[in-house]
Amino acid sequence: MPTINMSVVDLSTFKKSALALALAAGTSMVASTTHANEVEVLHWWTSGGEARAANVLKDLMEAEGYGWQDFAVAGGGGETAMTVLKSRAMSGNPPSAAQIKGPEIQEWGELGLLGDLDDVATAEGWNDLLPESVADIMRYDSHYVAVPANVHRVNWLWANPEVLEAAGVEMPTTLEELFTAGEAIREAGFVPLAHGGQAWQDATVFESVVLGSQGAEFYQQALVELDPEALGGEQMIAALEDFKRLRELMDEGMSGRDWNIATAMVIEGVAGFQLMGDWAKGEFTAAGLTAGEDYLCAAAPGTEDAFTFNIDSLAMFRVTDDAERDAQQTLARLVLEPTFQEAFNLAKGSIPARPDLDMSEFDSCAQQSLADFQRTADEGGLVPSMAHGMAVRADVQGAIFDVVTNYFNDTTMPADEAAQRLVSAAETASF
Amino acid sequence: MSESTTRIHARPTASGWLQAWLPRLVLAPSVAVSLFFVYGFMLWTFVLSLTSSRMLPSYDFVGFGQYARLMANERWWVASTNLMLFGVLFIVICLVIGALLAILLDQKIRQEGALRTIYLYPMALSFIVTGVVWKWLLNPQLGIQAMVQSWGFESFRFDWIVNPDMAIYTLVIAAVWQASGFVMALFLAGLRGIDDSIVKAAQLDGASLPRIYWRVVMPCLRPVVFSAVMILAHIAIKSFDLVVALTGGGPGYATDLPATFMYTHAFNRAQIGLGSASAMLMLGGVLAILIPYLYSELRSRKHG
């Protein structure tokens, strides 16, 4: 008897799991249905500090009486999360909000999948709150469809003060000074510039050099508007030559190295400098270092009047249910409110997207970052980061990455040929 | 007469129907699933390769435009050339090392079992593990180069992994390390299947040992070589994890292979159309090897 019972149980469990499998396949992996007053948020804020920061938003939503369904997909650059999002969107079941940034917001907008946030934006006065260049990115077809969570500055130079002292050099403010300081550091027995030879890191350094060597106006023409004359012209060739010279300051083990290992080289005093965005600050903080004392930060050489930004934002998908829409609008409002902006950015190393907040809690690098952000927003040195998907669409960005990384690693390619390749990359990438 | 025939005919049909059809009924779901999920998706990929799909699949047909773009893409040519280089070197070196190891192991030596396990062991690791291990070994500042230099040979250089012209060969090194033990196992099984009396007859005729292997044993192993080449060729074409773990496609994109090209473009760069086109060309590459093989196999069976 017991044996028979067992087999019956087994069969019924098997049937259930088979049914569940069939259902899962049939509904294209619909995880669950959202209740009316709930928001489901897809994001890749999964590292320790980031996850805590995302929890702040969850608590705020719940305090207002809304449900929060977390849809976190791990994977640094968000590629995995984007793949998941695409499959959800294709099956007609996107989450209510997703971490989408830069020109990708426009692509999702063109697909007609984004809902508008104009009511909240008007009520909260987003137009006055946000710098125009930031607000622009959040709008599709002149309607707000996304809300910014933070602003990262990409053009930073990080340094180890002990290495600088041992080599007897100061923090460089121009590219020429960086090269001179680099030589002194090498002679003192350190690696001058820590770098990881991955395409996106090459591109991160490249855009800082373009900005430092030729200025924000040229950067805008070349890497944002993709003007062929700028991309293939004398100024770009000069910038490419400066970029290639930086290679001499790097060690030969850089190929394929992760960015945080390069940061660790600065922390441990193996290397003097690193050119990297302000997420590197998370590594310094985690190592227990204090900004301005144990490590130094400054705008990448030659870029103190400019600011390359990389903004994380949440885009809202179109929903039909009124209660769900209400929850979504509340989410959008909360993201820009001071409580979340402060807690989130303290954890993430970035600065708030609205420039009117009290910055006394933040460290000196973040304070300088915000001051530069406000100044450059007024004076016109604020430019989107090409290397971090803020300036051009993914396919053009990919084609530029190919040229940049190939030129940087090829010992024989002349700068003018690389410039010509940039022109054709910008032309042929789009279909 | 006719009535009895129908009755005789009808009786086995009633009970035999189930017997005849039950296996097919049981197999039908798996056939349907593989038709849909393998061949259906192949067809879908082909359809997508004819469209201008970017971030999500769209059905805006552009003919063979994506293939033309692919042919004009310099990175695709780097990836294809790399595959040729990598594939040929990987297959040839694996076959040579595998055959040598098998022949040496076939000399009735002691501890054969233990040695065989040691040679075969790398196959038990995934390509990801192999890639990571070799990444550290080949790193000029941590691995072999640093070790030899620390022995006093200051001028020793082995920096292939950071040299765009040589990095593709590091893939060959790691892949050969992984797969030659497996080829050895195939050859060893083949060698054990050869009739001793042929070898003895050759010995009686006064042939030397290398000559016996070259003229008598190797020709008997032709089917083994064929299977080994087939397996190695498809490992080479679908190589993805090794590149990702060992070089990440770099320096630059010097070690890109078609599989990594396809993944990057379809999933990271919002060019599903172009990615599909490259996937179709990879499928074409596999078929170009598979069809002649199947043809020769089926033909020889008919004649045999």
UniProtKB/TrEMBL annotation, chain A:
Q: Which InterPro entries match?
A: Bact_solute-bd_prot1, SBP
In the record, which residues are listed under signal peptide? 1-36
Pfam families from the xrefs? Answer: SBP_bac_1
The record ties this protein, via Gene3D superfamilies, to: Periplasmic binding protein-like II
Domain of life of the native organism? Bacteria
SUPFAM superfamilies reported in the protein's UniProt record: Periplasmic binding protein-like II
What keywords are assigned to this protein? Signal, Transport
Coiled coil, from the record: none
User: What is any one of the record's Gene Ontology cellular component terms?
Assistant: periplasmic space
Where in or outside the cell? Periplasm
Q: What function is annotated for this protein?
A: Part of a binding-protein-dependent transport system for a sugar.
Tell me the protein family, please.
Belongs to the bacterial solute-binding protein 1 family.
Q: Which PANTHER family match?
A: ARABINOSE-BINDING PROTEIN-RELATED, BINDING PROTEIN COMPONENT OF ABC SUGAR TRANSPORTER-RELATED
Return the protein name: Probable sugar-binding periplasmic protein
Q: What's the source species for this entry?
A: Halomonas qinghailakensis
Which lineage is the organism of this entry classified under, starting from the top rank?
Bacteria, Pseudomonadati, Pseudomonadota, Gammaproteobacteria, Oceanospirillales
UniProtKB/TrEMBL annotation, chain B:
Which keywords annotate this record?
A: Cell membrane, Membrane, Transmembrane, Transmembrane helix, Transport
Signal peptide range in chain numbering: none
Compartments, as annotated in UniProt: Cell membrane
Instruction: Write out the transmembrane intervals.
Output: 21-47, 83-105, 117-137, 166-191, 212-237, 272-295
Report membrane topology: Multi-pass membrane protein
Q: Check the record and name the SUPFAM superfamilies matching this protein.
A: MetI-like
- InterPro entries (alphabetical): ABC_transporter_permease, MetI-like, MetI-like_sf
Chief location bin: membrane
Domain ABC transmembrane type-1: from-to ranges = 80-295
Tell me any Pfam family this protein matches.
BPD_transp_1
Would you identify the family this protein belongs to, as annotated? Belongs to the binding-protein-dependent transport system permease family.
Annotated protein name in UniProt: Sugar ABC transporter permease
